[in-house]
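FAQ

Q: What does a record look like?
A: Structure on top, sequence underneath. For example:
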């Protein structure tokens, strides 16, 4: 059995945001027959998706919650998020973040590395 991980940002019952590492199993599935089976995890129900580009000088330093439950799949650049509990994590190209802190104190965001950061944002069903 194969596994993969992603980072989750969530708000606890007091409204404090935190990061958590999530590990999921990938089962062997006939995903695209007649091609050979692939290792797949259950898909998240989604309501839409789009691209978000933050310029290198963009500053999300005012604490804010995520506007919706969403996945951020980083395509280029790098961004940094600080949860309200003070923990900071960086998300380079290729990283995956599940944003679920839609209530509470929120988080801050900043672009690092001097280049624009682009993500695929997938809006998730509640």
């Amino acid at each position: 059995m194969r596994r993969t991980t992603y980072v989750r940002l969530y708000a606890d019952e007091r409204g404090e945001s935190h990061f958590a590492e999530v590990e999921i199993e990938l089962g062997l599935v006939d995903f695209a027959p007649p091609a050979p089976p692939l290792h797949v995890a259950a898909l998240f129900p989604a309501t839409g998706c789009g691209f978000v580009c933050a310029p290198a000088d963009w500053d999300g330093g005012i604490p804010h919650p995520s506007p919706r439950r969403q996945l951020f799949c980083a395509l280029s650049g790098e961004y940094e998020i600080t949860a309200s509990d003070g923990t900071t994590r960086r998300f380079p190209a290729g990283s995956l973040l599940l944003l679920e802190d839609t209530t509470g104190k929120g988080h801050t965001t900043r672009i690092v590395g001097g280049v624009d950061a682009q993500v695929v944002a997938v809006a998730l069903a509640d």
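Q: Is there anything notable about this one?
A: Residues 2 and 26 are 5 Å apart (CA to CA).
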